[in-house]
């Protein structure tokens, strides 16, 4: 069975061609206070619509539930790149520092502009992975 988004009303799977990635709910089993607080915000987001849901270490939320500015890298493929890259969430020393905010019934849901960014020649030369 493929991994799917756990948010109510969404059953997206990872689709790199469309710029959709699945992000594990972070900090499973981490007891540091800041990690517990961050994990709780992710879990509470899902619990708003799925009251009896129980998170596991395999629970994932798709990139459609995050704002565009929550990603440090949000494009599918650049010219000359063989395979598309998945979106990456902003992170700090602990891990992801952003939280899902867009529910499946929100008008913004699924409206992410997945077109590759227009880059200047200079910026294209600077992009390295």
Question: How does this model look, in words?
Answer:
The chain has 129 residues and is an alpha+beta fold. The protein has one domain (16-126). Helix content is 16%, strand content 9%. The chain has two helices and four strands. The strands form two sheets. A two-stranded antiparallel ribbon has the order 1-2. The model has no long low-confidence stretch (mean pLDDT 80).
Q: What is the compact description of this entry?
A:
With 129 residues, this protein is α+β, with helices and mostly antiparallel strands. It contains 2 helices and 4 strands.
Helix and strand arrangement:
Elements: E1 22-24, H1 33-47, E2 60-62, E3 71-73, E4 88-89, H2 121-126
Antiparallel strand pairs: 1-2, 3-4
First and last CA, distance: 31 Å
Domain count: 1
How many β-strand stretches? Answer: 4
Give a quick account of the main beta sheet: strands, pairing sense, barrel closure. Answer: 2 strands, antiparallel
Poorly predicted regions are: none
Give the averaged pLDDT, no decimals. 80
Following the backbone from N to C, one meets helices and strands in this order, namely EHEEEH
What gyration radius follows from the Cα positions, in whole Å? 16 Å
Strand order of the largest sheet: 1-2
Structural class: alpha+beta
């Amino acid at each position: 069975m493929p991994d799917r988004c756990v948010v109510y009303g969404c059953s997206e799977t990872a689709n790199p061609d469309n710029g959709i990635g699945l992000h594990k709910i972070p900090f499973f089993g981490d007891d540091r206070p800041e990690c517990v607080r961050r994990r709780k915000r992710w879990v509470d987001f899902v619990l708003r619509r799925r009251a009896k849901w129980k998170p596991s270490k395999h629970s994932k939320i798709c990139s459609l539930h995050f704002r565009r500015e929550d990603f440090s890298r949000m494009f599918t493929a650049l010219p000359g790149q063989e395979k598309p890259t998945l979106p990456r969430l902003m992170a700090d020393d602990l891990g992801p520092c952003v939280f899902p905010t867009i529910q499946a019934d929100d008008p913004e849901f699924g409206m992410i502009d997945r077109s590759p960014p227009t880059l200047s020649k200079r910026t294209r030369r600077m992009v390295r992975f």
